[in-house]
Design a protein that fits this description.
Elements (H helix, E strand, L loop, with lengths): L1 E3 L11 H4 L11 E3 L4 H5 L4 H14 L13 H41 L7 H24 L15 H12 L16 H12 L9 H41 L7 H9 L6 H6 L2 H17 L1
Parallel strand pairs: 1-2
Helix pairs in contact: 5-6, 5-8, 6-8, 7-8, 8-9, 8-11
């Protein structure tokens, strides 16, 4: 703490005990200084002259001249503050250096994403646009097929891309695919008998037709319809979200075109070519239900 001469109390009192850190003790102690007066400043007294006068004043003062030299003087205050500042810088410097390195790395990655300077000719512009679209297409396919993409590789624990979609399909009818599940668990004898009577027609008794089976399982199949449609809608919305995320990365230099590209992507019909190559019975049911729903809308 710094104590100026004008902070000293009335005439006949002094701040020696305070400067000796005996009244209110501080960790770093006190330093007494004698500043230039306003008259000295108006008279254009120089800083060095003010320091010389201050030093002479403390050395010739009847009370303060007996103080240790580290308790008074602007020079002493400057040295103490410099040591404190040096210690603070020395402690904080590693964190500052790390922050600078992190920001440099972030800027370098940003510059890398921005790529080369903008082209000037029409041919170069078309080539650049084609390259960006191709980059988006490859990134989207890589995320769906699970192919390693070095550009967007990050350590993540949650499922993304094709793995997340596959998980949705696998969990769709999980309860129905359990070994203990039986579609006939809810059938009662009277229901089976009624179904046989309704669909026996003119056939001989004791030989139920396949229509009886269809009649009995149709309510159970209807229960599969809504979860399948919801699953497909969730996958569709996720694909849109994934496409938008990749677009923001591929077209980071041109954010204004992203809405137009996204609108164009949403107009592309959903293709099941890839899914059909790997579809299970559950996937087949989902696909047929979605195609049936599309035909109804048309």
């Amino acid at each position: 703490m710094c104590i100026r001469d004008r902070d000293i109390m009335d005439q006949g009192t002094n701040a020696k005990s305070t400067l000796m850190n005996q009244v209110v003790q501080l960790k770093l102690g006190y330093v007494g200084v004698k500043n230039r007066s306003q008259k000295d400043i108006n008279d254009k007294m120089g800083v060095q002259s003010g320091l010389d006068i201050e030093r002479s004043w403390f050395m010739n003062h009847p009370v303060y001249r007996s103080l240790p030299k580290d308790c008074y003087g602007t020079d002493t205050l400057t040295q103490k503050l410099s040591r404190i500042m040096y210690a603070h810088i020395r402690t904080s410097l590693p964190d500052i250096m790390k922050e600078i390195e992190d920001k440099l790395r972030s800027i370098e990655e940003r510059l890398k994403d921005l790529g080369l300077p903008l082209p000037t000719t029409e041919g170069q512009k078309v080539q650049m646009l084609w390259a960006m679209i191709n980059d988006f297409n490859n990134s989207f396919k890589n995320r769906i097929t699970g192919k390693l993409d070095i550009k967007s590789m990050k350590q993540k624990m949650e499922l993304t891309g094709g793995a997340k979609i596959k998980s949705n399909f696998f969990n769709l009818y999980k309860e129905y695919s359990a070994p203990e599940y039986r579609v006939s668990d809810n059938f009662q004898d009277k229901d089976i008998e009624r179904a046989i009577i309704l669909h026996e027609g003119d056939k001989l008794s004791g030989f139920p037709s396949i229509e009886v089976f269809y009649y009995l399982v149709q309510p159970e199949i209807e229960k599969l319809k809504e979860p399948a449609i919801n699953c497909l809608l969730n996958v569709y919305y996720y694909l849109e979200e994934l496409a938008h995320t990749i677009l923001e990365k591929s077209f980071v230099r041109f954010p204004s075109v992203i809405p137009e590209l996204m609108a164009a992507i949403q107009q592309i019909p959903v293709s099941y070519t890839h899914l059909r190559a790997h579809e299970t019975r559950h996937d087949l049911v989902c696909r047929l239900l979605l195609e049936k729903k599309k035909k109804k809308k048309k």
